[in-house]
């Protein structure tokens, strides 16, 4: 096998980001092979500062000394000096810049034979840097020094959960990516886990306790950080974090843009109310003011415009299509209105209120002014005119109120509009002859020193001031609300992440459908979780010669290196489970070096398939899985110079599945089928799939060839006729 990364060469190390190989070979030949392998390693330098630091950490972990990046750079390449001698020989270590990090464990002795194995730790230490790796070649030295002494770089097994937690750790505040935190849980968390009982594991995982706690902490956070301590309009700005004290704009411009672009679901109601108000004011004025063509002409355009905007705001989606397709396709401002109208601070909003407030009043007042010049039968209409003067004031009041209430823009723009309205109205009041007449007729008794126009102006100024204060207060509240929601959204995301982690953790230790049960179950449901299956397939795949490999010596850190290799094997087996084809295969557990799996454990799945076909499928898929396991192990053997072989036992039939345990609940299956499958393994032959007669029948129906083994004594069952399934490796593929 070649480690080269050229062309289509099959390098397991390069294909998968996680690997260490171990090799046990006997005698000098094996060592030579290792040497050949090592000299074929791809040389790829790491050049970034981060890479240098990583190099340093790797080197220091290998040497167990502090190696700085500078020191590392000084290490000269000497690939030609690989030295592999006799098994016990002390070999020098040469860090080779640009080659894969490799360690050659010192030789170990098993059964009088000298054994060596090499461990590639480059991937395990996650030393990848843009596809480049650094390599060190080493061999044995005295115990306690260098690589040859069996000291292993402190690499972490990359578990599924580990990687997941690592991936989400920034959100959760877990510092080390990819490494599950093993720190003691907080007392709150401990109490929470203590609720898990034998009868109800994972209890409370979805109940409201956690949510309540989160809710309380949210409220506390809101009180502390968001809600102003004193919410009077005068000092609200001083308490506002992140807001300009005068304009109340957010200091963060992105947040400001976000705030301004918020959709306003109330907009259409505001437009409708503004239109209604206009119609009412117009109606009142029609009753009080002398009718004339000028009056009607001044109302008409405003009314038409307002009604158009009401229509647009209520039927925006539909009308936008019409606008785009036919009427106003050349007028972007109009055709875009449908999109914009729901956002406060947009042009149409200003226009609506502006039109409504000003045109209507201005037209009325200008009519009043104008009536003095047109001389509309002054004798007859004199009394009517001066009696209608207060209605101008009331209309102005309503105008200011409509600007304040219905106009969905910032309070500053509202203030500007109100000031403009005020100035214009006061000027018109002063010019209107009717106001003077009214003052002469009715206003002389109270504050006669002030003309009625001035009194009206004062009223309007006070009103505008009051409305402005209210506007400011409302805007402050809505901005605080926006900030609050923004922070709450962030916290909500965290809660969602927590839920996600819960789910992932559960799904990592339980089959997905069982995890789902615990995540969604309610307290009233049955306490002990269990399922009965009439026909599932169970498989035990053991590596009998792993026992020979396993050894507890100083060289392999009291068995740690052997365990590392087993972990690699199991991890690779686990990866198979992720294939869609094996989605119905469930890993139950590992027992020592035995891998226990079952298929058909998903209630409700494949219901469309009839019972016989389902049975065939569950058994056949396990055989396929077994073949895949064998292929994987062969590959590992090739790369790590091992001779591991799988011995597989398979059976099918009814089982009962359930979750047992309180603090560490475990999903498991029980029944005669499981016992028999286990016995098929223990009485089986290395490299073969051993099955019962019933299972062999099912497999034959599914198209597999089974070779009768003959009567086999099975403890607890007596003598059974058993079969070996023919697989590609056994020469006769089905
Ligand atoms: N859920 C399970 N997980 C792992 N192994 C199991 C399970 N159920 C049964 N086995 C294994 O199946 C084998 C057969 O079980 P059985 O109950 O027939 O015999 P036993 O007398 O309990 O086992 P032994 O004689 O090996 O001690 C046992 O070795 C047992 O460990």
Descriptive key words:
alpha+beta; three-stranded antiparallel sheet; 26 helices; 15 strands; 52% helix; rod-shaped; disordered N terminus
Short description:
Its main location: membrane. The protein is α+β, with helices and mostly antiparallel strands and 734 residues long.
How would you describe this structure to a colleague?
Keywords: ATP-binding, cAMP biosynthesis, Glycoprotein, Lyase, Magnesium, Membrane, Metal-binding, Nucleotide-binding, Repeat, Transmembrane, Transmembrane helix. One of its GO terms (cellular component) is plasma membrane. It holds the Pfam family Guanylate_cyc. It is found in: Membrane. Belongs to the adenylyl cyclase class-4/guanylyl cyclase family. This protein is α+β, with helices and mostly antiparallel strands. Among the domains are: 199-225 and 243-323 and 343-360 and 384-509, no CATH class; 528-725, 2-Layer Sandwich (Alpha-Beta Plaits), CATH 3.30.70. Helix content is 52%, strand content 12%. The chain contains 26 helices and 15 strands. Strands 8, 9, 10, 11, 12, 13, 14 and 15 form an eight-stranded mixed sheet that branches. A three-stranded antiparallel sheet has the order 1-5-4, with helices on one face. A two-stranded antiparallel sheet has the order 2-7. A hairpin with a 2-residue loop joins strand 9 (585-591) and strand 10. Helix 7 (208-226) packs antiparallel against helix 20 (452-509) and helix 23 runs antiparallel to helix 24. The protein is rod-shaped and about 125 Å long. The two termini are 29 Å apart. Residues 1-185, 208-212, 322-350 and 366-377 have low confidence and may be disordered. Adenosine-5'-triphosphate (ATP) binds next to strand 12 and helix 25.
């Amino acid at each position: 096998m070649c480690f080269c990364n050229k062309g289509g060469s099959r390098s397991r190390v390069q294909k998968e980001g996680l690997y260490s190989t171990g090799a046990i070979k006997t005698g000098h030949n094996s060592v030579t092979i290792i040497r050949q392998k090592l000299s074929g390693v791809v040389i790829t330098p790491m050049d970034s500062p981060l890479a240098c630091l990583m190099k340093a950490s790797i080197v220091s972990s290998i040497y167990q000394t502090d190696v700085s990046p500078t020191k590392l750079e000084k290490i000269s390449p000497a690939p030609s000096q690989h030295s592999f001698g006799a098994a016990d020989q002390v070999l020098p270590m040469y860090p080779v810049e640009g080659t894969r990090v490799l360690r050659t464990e010192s030789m170990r002795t098993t059964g009088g034979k000298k054994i060596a194995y090499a461990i590639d730790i480059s991937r395990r230490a996650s030393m990848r840097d843009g596809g480049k790796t650094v390599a060190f070649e080493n061999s044995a030295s005295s115990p306690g020094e260098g690589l040859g002494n069996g000291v292993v770089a402190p690499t972490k097994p990359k578990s599924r959960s580990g990687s997941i937690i690592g991936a989400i750790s920034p959100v959760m505040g877990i510092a080390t990516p990819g490494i599950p935190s093993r720190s003691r849980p907080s007392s709150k968390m401990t109490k929470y886990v203590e609720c898990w009982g034998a009868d109800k594991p994972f209890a409370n995982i979805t109940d409201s306790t956690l949510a309540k706690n989160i809710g309380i902490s949210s409220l506390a956070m809101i009180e502390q950080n968001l809600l102003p301590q004193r919410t009077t309009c005068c000092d609200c700005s001083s308490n506002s974090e992140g807001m300009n004290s005068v304009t109340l704009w957010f200091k963060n411009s992105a947040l400001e843009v976000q705030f301004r672009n918020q959709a306003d679901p109330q907009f259409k109601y505001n437009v409708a109310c503004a239109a209604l108000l206009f119609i009412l004011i117009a109606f009142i004025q029609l009753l009080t003011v002398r009718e004339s063509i000028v009056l009607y002409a001044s109302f008409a355009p405003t009314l038409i415009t307002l009604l158009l905007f009401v229509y647009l705001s209520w039927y925006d989606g539909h009308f936008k299509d019409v606008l785009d397709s036919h009427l106003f396709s050349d007028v972007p401002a109009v055709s875009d209105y449908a999109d914009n109208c729901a956002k406060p601070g947009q042009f149409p909003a200003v226009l609506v209120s502006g039109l409504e407030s000003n045109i209507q009043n201005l037209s009325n007042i200008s009519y009043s002014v104008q009536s003095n010049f047109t001389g509309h039968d002054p004798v007859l209409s004199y009394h009517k005119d001066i009696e209608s003067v207060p209605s101008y004031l009331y209309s102005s009041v309503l105008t200011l109120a409509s600007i304040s209430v219905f106009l969905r823009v910032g309070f500053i723009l509202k203030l500007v509009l109100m000031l403009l309205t005020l100035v214009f109205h006061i000027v018109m009041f002063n010019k209107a002859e009717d106001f003077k007449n009214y003052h002469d007729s009715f206003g002389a008794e109270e504050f006669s020193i002030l003309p009625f126009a001035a009194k009206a102006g004062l009223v309007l100024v006070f009103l505008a001031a009051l409305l402005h204060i209210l506007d400011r207060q409302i805007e402050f509240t809505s901005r605080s609300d926006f900030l609050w929601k923004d922070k709450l959204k962030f916290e909500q995301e965290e809660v969602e992440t927590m839920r996600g982690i819960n789910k992932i953790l559960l799904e990592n230790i339980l089959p997905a459908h069982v995890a789902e049960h615990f995540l969604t179950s309610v307290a009233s449901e049955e306490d002990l979780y269990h399922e009965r299956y009439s026909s599932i397939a169970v498989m035990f795949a053991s590596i009998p010669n792993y026992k020979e490999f396993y050894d507890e010596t100083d060289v392999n850190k009291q068995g740690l290196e052997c365990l590392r290799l087993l972990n690699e094997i199991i991890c690779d087996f686990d990866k198979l489970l992720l294939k869609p084809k094996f989605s119905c295969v469930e890993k139950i557990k590992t027992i020592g070096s035995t891998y226990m799996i079952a298929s058909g454990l998903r209630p409700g799945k494949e219901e469309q398939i009839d019972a016989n076909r389902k049975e065939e499928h569950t058994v056949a898929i396990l055989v396929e899985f077994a073949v895949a396991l064998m292929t994987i192990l062969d590959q590992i053997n090739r790369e790590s110079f091992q001779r591991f072989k799988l011995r597989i036992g398979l059976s099918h039939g009814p089982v009962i599945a359930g979750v047992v345990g309180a603090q560490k609940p475990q999903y498991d299956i029980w029944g005669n089928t499981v016992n028999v499958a286990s016995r098929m393994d223990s009485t089986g032959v290395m490299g073969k799939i051993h099955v019962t007669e019933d299972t062999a029948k099912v497999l034959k129906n599914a198209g597999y060839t089974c070779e009768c083994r003959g009567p086999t004594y099975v403890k607890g069952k007596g003598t059974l006729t058993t079969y070996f399934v023919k697989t590609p490796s056994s020469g006769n593929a089905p």
